[in-house]
Amino acid sequence: MDLGPISPVNSLVPNLPVTATSPQLRVNTRELGFGTYQIGLRVRDDSGNFSTTSASALVVIKRGETAVAVLRSPPVAFLKFPFLVSGAESFGRGDIPILSYNWQLVDEAGTVVRFQTKSPWVAIGGPQMNPNDPLPRDLKPGKYLLSLIVQDDTPIPSKPDEQPLLIVPREKPGRRPIALAQGLMDGNAVNEMPRGAKFDLDGSDSVKSATGAELVRYIWTWLPYRTTTLEHTPWLQVSVTSPRFRPEWELGEGLHRFRLVVVDAKEITSAPSDIVVRVNPN
Predict the structure, then answer these.
(1) Considering Cα of 21, then 57, then 258, then 95, what sign does the dihedral take?
(2) Among the four 67, 121, 249, 260, which has the fewest Cβ within 10 Å?
(3) pLDDT in the model for residue 218
(4) The CATH number of the domain where 235 resides is what?
(5) Cβ contact 70:30 at 8 Å
């Protein structure tokens, strides 16, 4: 039986409802931690009436037999400005650590740049300061496809995780505002910090749309990360009017992911911008 088109959902966040116009929903399980989830469904008719009962199903997400690459990159980056991409949420088979991160960047002409790192965090873009620098620099405006393959100490690498990337001139905004998230500690950008450290979530580099409407809300969501079980994974969301926000959340050791969406005075929302922060033991 044909149920019609499928609504793709790149991020289904526990405890936050999702509304779709299609009876089928496609969920990216890379966005969720390991464990058991209960997914519920209610329907609404064209008069605005909700169903009096709901249906639910249990979904179990388990580790696979090979390493899994999890790529985080801003969907939009600015010409001549470096930006951070992350593979920190990737994981090996069982508890095997990741030994190498293999990146690939392809432009619209099919030109491929490949590079390998030991670190899960890489800053690409920006000016070419060192001729021996293997990382992609001086990127041209346009569409790119960024992919990541990770390798643990087993002979089979992960499947690639891919994400489209758009490079735009900062002075030519689009129809939607652009969210740019970063973590700050003592005023400096950070992706690792000791447990208990005070830090800020900052969206000051976010950009207004071509309408010129001011940014009026910064919505931060503390998202699940794949290095823990469901019982220990928090989900919180806060909406603030200032671009900089100091959370009072107690972060445990491990990886934490934060997502920023900005909203302007015309109620136009941006695409999400994610950052990944590792909290180390003191």
Answers:
(1) negative
(2) 249
(3) 97
(4) 2.60.40.10
(5) yes
> pLDDT grade, residue 230 (50/70/90)?
very low
Those residues with Cβ within 8 angstroms of residue 133's Cβ, 6 or more apart along the chain or in another chain: none
Last residue of a domain, one of 121, 136, 168: 168
CB atoms within 10 A of CB 109: 8
| pTM for this predicted structure | 0.63
123 and 163 within one domain: yes
Query: 113 in a domain, yes or no?
Result: yes
- Token look-up 């609504």 returns 7
- Whether residue 164 sits in one domain with residue 189: no
- Numbers of helices and strands, H then E, in the chain: 0, 20
Copy the structure tokens of residue 163. Answer: 């994400």
Residues 6 or more apart in contact with residue 10 via CB below 8 angstroms: 28, 31
Cβ atoms 282, 114 nearer than 8 A? no
What pLDDT, in 10s, does the model give residues 128-151? 767 777 788 888 999 999 999 999
| Closest among 169, 24, 147 to 87, alpha carbons compared | 147
